[in-house]
Amino acid sequence: MSQVVTPFSAERGLSERHVRILDAAERVFARAGFHAATMNDIAAEAAMSPGNLYRYFSSKDAIIGGISERDRTEVAADFAQLDPSKGGLLDQLEELGRQHMVRKPREKAIIALQIWAEASRTPEMAQICAGFDEVVEQGLGAAVAAAKASGELPSNLDQARFLTALFMMADGFFCRRAVDPNFDAAAGAEALFAAMRGLAQTMLLPPADGQTL
Which residues contact 88 (CB under 8 A, 6 or more apart)? Predict the structure, then answer.
């Protein structure tokens, strides 16, 4: 008789076993890498039998998908909490950045780098990356648009170029944190935030015909 795999959905909430497996897999992947890690390694790290592990995830790829889905859902929920009535949106974005860029363990950056590398080779990983990027782009885009409407950011900010620049800076941050164990994540994040605020004042749309700056 074939095993029944317990359905996984971050939106419906994670069971204690799902959380234990995903946390264990992150530690194993960060230490050994996706290719060297085995389902037996993950089961041992999660303190369960391989057979029990397969009840929850059918493969390493399914576990990677579970990690990515959990992160995507968490980030989407964090962006949904941004609210102009709670204060400046840039301040809130910076605090969200500290949560995910500084307070999360370095292993998260290492795993992100591995996923990006796999995305260059496999369509499945590329789709996972695209789904995560879409959530971040939507959340950032909504926050920037609201900040422009409130006057916190210039109304003529070139939002498309601004978001592209933020994505590139954030990607570079995670790469540096992954490859350099001595990288000061807190200082690096503050430098990124300062650059974000500077770009927001200078990366402007050209004036329309007949208008002056």
Answer: 147, 152
Asked whether residue 3 carries a pLDDT value surpassing 70, the answer given is no
Please give the domain boundaries of the chain with CATH numbers for all domains.
1-64 (1.10.10.60), 81-202 (no CATH)
How many angstroms separate the CA atoms of 106 and 181, rounded?
A: 8
DSSP classification of residue 36: T
Any idea which residue has 């950011």 for tokens?
Answer: 153
pLDDT digits (tens, 9 = 90+) for 111-146: 999 999 999 999 999 999 999 999 999 999 999 999
The helix or strand, by DSSP H or E, that contains position 144, with its residue range, turns out to be: helix 123-150
Question: Residue 98: which of 201, 197, 191 has the closest Cα?
Answer: 191
The SS3 assignment for 120 reads coil
**6 confidence band (pLDDT: 50, 70, 90):** very low
